[in-house]
Amino acid sequence: MPVPHPRFAIFLVFPAALMVACGGSTNPTSPTPTPLTPAQIQARYTAAATHYNQGEVSIAATENATCDASSGSVSLSSCQTALSSQRQLTIAYDNALRAIPFIQGAATDAAHLLGDDAAIEKLLEQAATAPAIPVIGILQQQIIPLLATAASDAAALRMAIGLPAPA
Prior knowledge:
Elements: H1 6-22, H2 38-66, H3 76-98, H4 104-128, H5 133-160
Helix pairs in contact: 2-3, 3-4, 4-5
């Protein structure tokens, strides 16, 4: 009768021990996050909105100068870069909003705003890769009403978290 090889037994025991040692608990306990105070929620929202608004000022100036077919400084590549930057800025803003644990009505308002922004981001991505300024113009005509809706949703969110309307 063959005698089992000792290394074979070690190879069987080691994976089993490793699974037991590294395996997570079947009932993991993680600390319950402490809810944010209204002031903390306001501060986080304000920081995200301020970052977005500051970035948007220079991006809008570039878009106005380079994406308008009647502008003397129209430039497809500069326009595409500005639109891509606007998309990235919107994504950063949305990620900051997702990190805020909004409650009740504010959570609904935030979801509406994030939905609007998702549609805007999709159109901005198309515009940033469009082959010509006239195509960008068509896409911008779709973006403009969405921006108005997003601004309205942002105002509702501000009100829901106790912040005044932007000046």
